[in-house]
Specification:
- By secondary structure, the protein is an alpha/beta fold.
- The chain folds into two domains: about 160 residues, Spo0b-associated Gtp-binding Protein, Chain: A (Distorted Sandwich); about 180 residues, Rossmann fold (3-Layer(aba) Sandwich).
- Helix content is about 20%, strand content about 20%.
- The strands form three sheets. A six-stranded mixed sheet has the order 10-11-9-12-13-14, with helices on both faces. Strands 3-1-8-5-6 form a five-stranded mixed sheet, with no helix packed on it. A three-stranded mixed sheet has the order 4-2-7, with no helix packed on it.
- Helix 4 links the parallel strand 12 and strand 13.
- It starts with a strand and ends in a 22-residue tail after the last helix.
- The structure holds guanosine-5'-diphosphate and magnesium ion.
């Protein structure tokens, strides 16, 4: 899933130089004292690891740096125009659109703090003081500032999941991803065929993260169903896992243990990631009645659990806020892999190694 934005950038124009002559009491013919115009500010694109998506460009598409001020008399130079910094997610590919509608490579932003100039400011014009010479002591010329560069840019970002949703088929993964984001997964249509993560962008206030419905892991993928490299990239990058359990299941606790076991078996560091547990479908009365019991059962094994209905949206906001909190706390330069780091920073579900085999009696819910 590629996030693409088109923006317009323009460097500030240079300020004009000015024609001016000294006027002082008792000095009938002062010399030239017209100051230079200031240079215009430039527009830069800078990699920022705290941004996950290009959504800011839905609201703002034009970026102009400040122009340089004009020069003034008394040799006063115009102030330099301020630069404009556009922060983009790490992983953004910057291209420039030519008049012939070709896209030309500008820069691949692959690091936090990486910076590229995309529209240089114009140069300030010289004031007439600069043109004085022995043969022309009263020059009446000054330069105009040059215009700032302008460009139309294409920003491409390949979205990589920050948070992954795992769980058994029919637990409600696709439904959850579809209600929290603009993704439109085909819910429940072909439960076993979609082995590519479906991505969505979750927006909370001004912040956002990428959530992925990760089918396949539990649905037998580690047993050898082919997963593309893309899939692995998503899982590697994912900083938080949301384990979603169907509340209408006979035994939520054993489901959770089975999911844990599957995650450990999957490898790829999946078992080491911080996780959040959510029990879904609390809109169903029988499930709602069990909330208290399930909560205390999970508390007994040290698991903090969220109760949600992906269908009605109940509890979903809190779950997403918690997810964002965990992502924000995770230092994005280094995915959390060590147990200590995770323990220190989050209260997370970090079960002891499970000795249980995958629980039987999963009662035909695989369809
Ligand atoms: N009652 C109820 N049904 C749900 C809820 N979430 C999902 N479902 C239903 O459960 C089924 C499986 O959901 P889906 O999102 O496809 O599960 P996935 O296989 O984990 O992606 C679908 O029929 C959904 O409509 C919920 O919160 N409440
Ligand atoms: Mg699904």
């Amino acid at each position: 899933m590629i996030d693409r934005s088109q923006i317009y950038v323009k460097g500030g124009d240079g300020g004009n130089g000015v024609v001016s002559f000294r006027r002082e009491k008792y000095v009938p013919f002062g010399g030239p004292d017209g100051g230079d115009g200031g240079d215009g500010g430039s527009v830069y694109i800078v990699g920022d690891r705290s941004i996950a998506t290009l959504r800011q460009f839905r609201y703002r598409r034009q970026f102009r740096a400040k122009r340089g001020a004009h020069g003034k008399g008394k040799n006063m130079h115009g102030r330099r125009g301020e630069d404009l910094i556009i922060n983009v997610p790490v992983g953004t590919l910057v291209k420039r659109r030519t008049e012939g509608n070709d896209d030309v490579f500008v820069e691949d932003i692959i690091q936090h703090g990486q910076r590229v100039i995309v529209a240089a400011g114009g140069i300030g014009g010289r004031g007439n003081a600069r043109f004085a010479s022995p043969t022309n002591q009263a020059p009446r010329t000054a330069e105009q500032g040059s215009p700032g560069e302008e460009a139309t840019l294409i920003l491409d970002l390949k979205l990589i999941a920050d948070a992954g949703v795992v769980g058994y088929p029919n637990a409600g993964k696709s439904t959850l991803v579809s209600v929290v984001s603009r993704a439109t997964p085909k819910v429940a249509e072909y439960p076993f065929t979609t082995l590519e993560p479906v991505l969505g962008v979750v927006e909370i206030g001004y912040r956002s993260f990428v959530i992925a419905d990760i089918p396949g892991i539990i649905e037998g993928a580690h047993r050898g169903l082919g997963l593309g490299l893309d899939f692995l990239r998503h899982i590697e990058r994912t900083k938080t896992i949301i384990q979603i359990i169907d509340g209408s299941s006979d035994n939520v606790l054993s489901d959770l243990k089975a999911i844990e076991a599957e995650m450990q078996a999957y490898g790829e560091g999946l078992g080491d990631k911080p996780r959040i547990v959510a029990v879904n479908k609390i809109d169903i009365p029988e499930v709602r009645e069990r909330i208290r019991r399930i909560r205390s059962e999970l508390q007994d094994i040290g698991v903090d659990v969220y109760f949600i209905s992906a269908a009605t949206g109940e509890g979903v906001d809190e779950l997403m806020k918690k997810t964002l909190d965990m992502l924000t706390q995770a230092d994005s330069t280094a995915p959390i892999h060590t147990e200590q780091a995770a323990e220190a920073e989050f209260k997370v579900f970090r079960p002891r190694p499970l000795s249980t085999k995958k629980a039987g009696g999963r009662g035909g819910r695989h369809g």
